[in-house]
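Input/output pair, single chain:
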Amino acid sequence: MLYDVGYCTVFKETRGKKDYQWLSGRMFIPCGDGGWQARELSGTSNIKYYSNEGWSKTRTVYNLAQASKTPDMCVLCEGVTDVWRVGERGVAIFGKSLSKTQADILARNFSTVAVALDTDAFEGKNPSGTKAMVELNRRGVKTFRVMLPAGKDPADCGKDEFWSLVNTS
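Output:
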């Protein structure tokens, strides 16, 4: 499989004094650099994602190996499910804020970044979406914002709809 996603039906193990039953009913997503996320699917947990201890999300760009096979351009998203909708050119930063390390990684691998962060990343004082574009521009990367419909993120769009938005931005 392209993303190597798995699912844990029931997990009853303990290791040391830690109970890992909370892993039951979660999708497991390998994220690169030894990291993973366990995503809750039922909608009953207060915590949507768990990440493994010791893994730094701010030092990782999800789907980098696949996206860098087309080094001219990638599409920057917040989360892994956005990337799955975007396809092979999608990368994710695990939230709204691009770290300096992630900006460096993207600058080493792409000449252009289409920024498809959720619309709220471009709202308010000091919007993180604008900051991401500035950080990438400082590193010589061309950027443009993908204008998503209000209240939608890439995962909410059909693939053809999303790429139509990229091509008209």
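Residues 128-138 form the longest helix (11 residues). Residues 97 and 128 are 5 Å apart (CA to CA).
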